[in-house]
Amino acid sequence: MPAGARKLVGKVRHGDRALAAATVGAAVIILGMLAIILLDVIVGGARTISWEFISQPPRKGMTEGGIFPAIFGTVALTLLMTIAAVPAGVATAIYLTEYASMQSRVARLVRVSVANLAGVPSIVFGLFGLGFFISTVGRGIDKVAYGGQSVYGRPCLIWSALTLAILTLPVVVVSTEEAILSVPRELREGSLAVGATRLQTIVRVVLPEALGGILTGTILAVSRGAGEVAPILFTGVAYYLPQLPTNLNDQFMNLGYHVYVLATQSPDVDRTKPLLYGTAFVLLVLTFLLNLIAIYIRSRSRKRSRASA
Amino acid sequence: MTATELTLQATRMPAVVAATSPTVQAVPLKMRARDLTVGYSGKVAIQDVSIDVNQNVVLALIGPSGCGKSTFLRSLNRMNDTVPGVSVSGHVELDGEPIYGPEVDPVLVRRRVGMVFQRSNPFPKSIFENVAYGLRIAGVRDRAVLAERVERALRHAALWDEVKDRLQESGLRLSGGQQQRLCIARALAVEPEVLLMDEPASALDPIATAKIEDLIAHLRSELTIVIVTHNMQQAARVSQRTGFFYMGRLVEVGDTTTIFTRPKERETEDYITGRFG
To answer: How far is the C-alpha of B274 from the C-alpha of B277, rounded, in Å?
Structure first.
């Protein structure tokens, strides 16, 4: 080696290796957990799944039969919640991004509220639903419209849906805000420059461009809400119902709650166990389906915006 | 290119322009800015700018980055209104009417004073719908009228022959230069009286740039153009009048020939000869 040449062979950097190993390990643990849960539910649940299980109500004290009322109740609840949460959430996000100025106190207050709302434990939403929707709003409606008869002043579908909607709202607002903010400024200016009003620009350029992001975020929020049990515990879910809910003020059954019921209230644990697995399986499949739709929409809108680059 | 070469070119080219643009001063006024000061959140971007924009004349605005030329351009159609924290004082007139008057609707200003941006920004819609956009929002529904005006705008933007068979294709599938001409067509479709162009060719290759420059020369007979450019040869080629901005002030404005051959101000001369900028 000539004098003064700088060497190329150095010692192994142990810090780097350790960090790499630790990060890989963390990722493996997460994957492993997910795999264990999924495998357990799939293996245990797949055997139970049959057309009868999906299409029939429970029988014999929930030791036989299916879970159709719980599927129906979950779908109805999720749809109503979406109808309530999405317009309000999207409208709030439009106000925050398009109309409120940076210094606006109202906007700041809304942002703080949304952030805090997202941090509230879900059981607190349940209690809020009971105290506000049922005791205050529901009883108020009964007093005014039904002469004090208990029609809306009791746990039922609509109050559960609204309680869940409030729980979902922050996520809808934040993801819609992000989607709207990611619309390039150039597109807005292109619209304004040919004499479009702010409203026309929002409706014809900003929202169509942000739609993919809005839908993705919304569906993820909805799928998260669809699995929640705590908010509906006091506000409308039922242990067992002989018939399906047909009105907004009917009680309903729910997959998440059904899992809880089967796991804790069963007269015969061994005979309910397969049903329990099957119910968990169906709940997982429903939420996964929603997530898959979200992923599909996201990849499609990405493709579109990549074509513009 | 060295400073001397640039000087030679700069002095050579305007001679051609001068031949085609005899008496700029005799042309009627289209827009007028007086003591215009614009600030963003308290920071002054341009100060006390006064300039005349003559009808059917191309006015080029040159100057180093951050000198305020784009800010000035955007205040001519109240595009700055959309920036949070902007403050505007002074006076801008369109055909003698103040555009910052208390009852003026900026939307109506922008229908008469259109704009083309540095980065082409077609909507993710078809070529046809891109051009028809301004007409639709202005309430034009008649399909025959739409088709006719879209064609006219595309012809004006020298894009018709390239896209006439694929009007339903996405505007995003065009090349960069075509996209920029599509944006020009979109601006022209609503038949503005003034067209503001903010470095419209800075992201394009020389051939696409030449097409845009040709276009500007043709459009001049029908409307008034104000163009911001970094490229001094471009200013010399396309404009009849040139204004030089530096540090938020309009240093000098005059016939393009004069600005490039006998500028009055030292700063102008230093800039056009490439001593800074």
So the answer is: 7
Alpha-carbon distance A114 to nearest alpha carbon in chain B (angstroms): 23
Please check the confidence at residue A10 and state whether its pLDDT lies above 90. no
For residue B20, pLDDT beyond 80: no
DSSP-assigned letters across all residues of A157-196: HHHHHHHHHHHHHHHHHHHHHHHHHTS-HHHHHHHHHTT-
Is B86:B40 a contact under the CB 8 Å cutoff? yes
The verdict on a CB contact (< 8 Å) between A193 and B117 is yes
Q: In the predicted model, what is the mean pLDDT of residues A141-157? A: 89
CATH number for the domain running over A51-308 = 1.10.3720.10
Which among B84, B108, B110 is the nearest to A193, CB-wise? B110
Give pTM, 2 decimals.
0.79
What ipTM was reported for this prediction?
A: 0.84
Least confident of A101-115, B97-111, B172-186, B220-234: A101-115
Cα distance between residue A269 and residue B173, in whole Å: 62
For A162-198, how does the pLDDT look when each residue is reduced to its tens digit (9 = 90+)?
A: 999 999 999 999 999 999 999 998 999 999 999 999 9
Rg (CA), chain A: 25
Nearest CA distance, B130 vs chain A (angstrom): 10
B121 Cβ under 8 Å from any chain A Cβ: yes
Question: Over pLDDT 90: what percentage of chain B?
Answer: 70
What is the structure's pLDDT at B12?
40
Kindly tell me the sign of the dihedral angle through the C-alpha atoms of A9, A12, A13, A16.
positive
Q: Dig out the tokens for B162 from the structure.
A: 């390239």
Q: B238-271: buried (b, 16+ CB within 10 Å) or exposed (e) per residue?
A: bbbbbbbbbebbbbbbbbbbbbbbebeeebbbeb
A293 burial level (CB within 10 Å; 0-12, 13-18, 19+): middle
In the CATH scheme, what is the homologous superfamily, with its name and number, of domain B29-122+193-272? P-loop containing nucleotide triphosphate hydrolases (3.40.50.300)
Name which of B79, B85, B108 is nearest A189 (Cβ-Cβ): B79
Domain boundaries in chain A? 51-308
The alpha-carbon radius of gyration of chain B (Å, integer) is 19
Question: Hey, is the C-beta of B122 within 8 angstroms of any chain A C-beta?
Answer: yes
Of A101, A186, A200, the CB nearest to B137: A200
B40 Cβ under 8 Å from any chain A Cβ:
no
